[in-house]
Amino acid sequence: MDLSSINPLVLIAALMVASTPILLAAIGELVVEKSGVLNLGVEGMMITGAICGFAVAVESGSPALGFVGAAVGGALLSLLFGVLTQYLLSNQVATGLALTLFGLGLSALMGQDYVGIKPPATGDVNFGPLADLPVLGIVLFRHDLMVYVSLAIVAGVWAFLKYSRAGLILRAVGESHDAAHALGYKVVHVRLAAIAFGGACAGLGGAYLSLIRVPQWTEGMTAGAGWIALAIVVFASWKPWRVLLGAYLFGGVTVLQLNLQAAGVAIPVEYLSMSPYIITILVLVIMSSNRGRAALAAPAALGRSFHASS
Amino acid sequence: MKRRNLLAGAALALGLGGAALAGSHEPLKVGFIYVGPIGDGGWTFEHNEGRLAVEEHFGDAVETVFQENVPEGADAERALTQMALQGADLIFTTSFGYMDPTNAVAGKFPDVKFEHATGYKREHANVSTYSARFYEGRAVQGHIAGKMTETNKIGYIASFPIPEVIRGINAAYIHAKRVNPDVEFSVIWVYTWFDPAKEADAANALIEQGADVVLQHTDSTAPQAAAQAAGNVITFGQASDMGEYAPMPRVSSIIDNWAPYYIARTQEVIDGSWASVDTWDGISTGMVKIGDISDAVPADVKAEAEAMAAAIGAGEYHPFTGPLNKQDGSPWLAEGEIADDGTLAGMNFYVEGLTGEVPN
Predict the structure, then answer these.
(1) How far is A30 from chain B, CA to nearest CA, in Å?
(2) Domain boundaries, position B112
């Protein structure tokens, strides 16, 4: 065992990179669920974003354009879900699951010509002298732009939900769509906007995988990250900063256990491997113990269809 | 309307009768169950190449079907049953974790032939097993890795603690150690065959801790991309050539060549000569191929590696030749003794020198 071979600073930097895809997807899903819509298609939107972003980046040579393409791709796919659930009032759970299957198939089809291609490299943001700071330099100032964008989105979502009027309306729609409707708010429009935002964020998360973290296109490459994102939203009790905490915790334990294995720590590997999931489940259990749905802060209208006549 | 119902009923009856009789004039239906997507660039990709080769070889005489991303375990049983019900005559199940589902479903469909890759259970007369001696290729990789490492740390991304994977680790270690006594192996068990993000994270963890060779026993090309980004790290293509990463980081590869086996077994079903067998072929029959050794490898190392592969193929050299001890120091093979297939097939121990424990 040689723990000295693990550099804690590099580890923290690595966990931020490992957590960013699920963070992006989870913060988007949080907004969707806050508006009262349960979209289980995160996995499908992520993988669609991954291939859209990859294809655009490869064709244009610009990773930045790739991320824009990923957001657009994810949003378009999510709007399919939006139209089905908001206008045609299909069941949200079933439609979300179908969206995942559809996204996986669609991405495999779109990605056929992109297997084995290398995407243009995404550079790290140049902070100049800040990057040379001891400790903080490695941890905070040597990442690619998307890490900072993901943090900015979390802060933005928090401020939007807490302080803005539009955020209040969105929360009202999620708590009681009938009351919001009676007040004259366009429930369906608000929800469609939230769904599109969630899709765009999931797309960005997927593109982060295919353009930066892996970086390549492989079919099915999200490998369940979308489901983790869904769990993290519940884990976070629908609070933006807790989404950040949950995503970094999950990503952190994942990276840590790989590093511990590489260093040959004498803990049985089985426990190390299951630790991210165990810890997530444990926190979920602790947080939900002896509390009702209201205390968990789930939006009251989550998963319910809305029709103006009802 | 009534007449249509009648016709449909008649057609159904005919169809059922036809399926039961399964006349030789109908195309033989060959099914494949895959653990990953066919575009993984590795394991499943090569099995699918084998399927395409069957289609090309037999033309209209054979029809193939496949299902990808089938999880190992209970869901595999459902997928297998469905394929058997759809009239498949021969089904290849291409991952270790399908072993029990394959045997369970085989018991229910005695007329369907099942072929399970990399397993050892043949509980029914209609189950065969087949595998490749990947460890022969691992020995060649170990030789190159031991010669080329400068940090003397070699990283190994392992999937599940099953004999096939453990054999690979042992074979690579023995031959790396032989040419470089200072070499150390770090093994990371990722408990997945296919998860590009996790494979990339594992590769990065190994590289950050000083490994300059990364061997993988997982199916995606993600570790290759991670090594390329890190620079100065070498890798080997796994299951498929992964030639898009040559000459660096990928300096060679193990290529699984299933096509000849799939064609031969399909032909046997057509001829009616198919029987339950256990096939375990290696470099000698071409089931395991060593991918082109790139120019990043010094010429003398390349020549030695090629000579070793040739000797293994000719049956002159066996990668598990004594003297070899088990990890705890107890003797396993005496001087000149060669490991028997039974021990190799069930290998659940590390050889002497490897650190860490084999997970249960």
Answers:
(1) 23
(2) 26-132+258-285
DSSP B326: B
Same domain membership, residue B61 and residue B201 = no
Instruction: Answer yes or no: is pLDDT of B212 > 50.
Output: yes
Q: Last residue of a domain, which of B285, B302, B322?
A: B285
Based on the fold, state whether residues B113 and B248 are members of the same structural domain: no
**CATH number, residue B219:** 3.40.50.2300
Over residues B3-57, the pLDDT tens digits come to 444 444 444 444 444 444 444 457 999 999 999 888 888 899 999 999 999 999 9
B327 belongs to a structural domain: yes
Contacts of A5 in chain B (CB under 8 A): 209-210
DSSP β-bridge partners for residue B90: B30, B113
**What per-residue string of b and e applies to B24-56 under the rule 16 or more CB within 10 Å gives b?**
eeeebbbbbbbbbbbbbbbbbbbbbbbbebbee
Are residues B165 and B188 in contact, defined by beta-carbon separation less than 8 angstroms? Answer: no
Is A310 a residue whose pLDDT tops 60? no
| In a shared domain, residues B56 and B96 | yes
Structural domain includes residue B5: no
What distance in Å separates the CA atoms of residue A99 and residue A88, rounded to the nearest whole number? 15
What would the pLDDT profile of B192-202 be if each residue is shown by its tens digit? 888 888 999 99
Tens of pLDDT, residue by residue over B231-240, are 889 999 998 8
Pairing of strands B250-256, B288-291: antiparallel
CA B242 to chain A, closest CA, distance in angstroms equals 8
Note the ipTM here. 0.81
Residue B124 sits in the same domain as residue B239:
no
Domain count, chain B: 2
Q: For residue A238, which amino acid is it?
A: W
| Strand, helix or coil for residue B125 | coil
Residues B238 and B307 in one domain: yes
Chain B neighbors of A273, CB-CB under 8 A:
189-191
Indicate the burial class of A109 (C-beta count within 10 angstroms; 0-12, 13-18, 19 or more): exposed
Report yes or no on B352 lying in a domain.
Answer: no
pLDDT confidence of residue A269: 72
Bridge partner list, B31: B65, B91
| pLDDT tens by residue, A226-263 | 998 998 898 888 999 999 998 998 888 888 888 888 88
Contact: A213, B220; criterion CB under 8 Å: no
What 3-state DSSP class applies to B153? strand
Reading phi first (left if > 0) and then psi (alpha if -120 to 50, else beta), residue A268 is in beta
Nearest chain A residue to B186 by CA distance is A262
Same domain, B64 and B200: no
Most A CBs within 10 Å, among B184, B201, B233, to test the A interface: B201
B265 shares a domain with B247: no
DSSP SS3 for B214: strand
The answer to whether the Cα torsion of B345, B50, A47, B226 is positive or negative is positive
Domain borders along chain A are 3-120+131-296
Domain A3-120+131-296's class?
Answer: mainly alpha
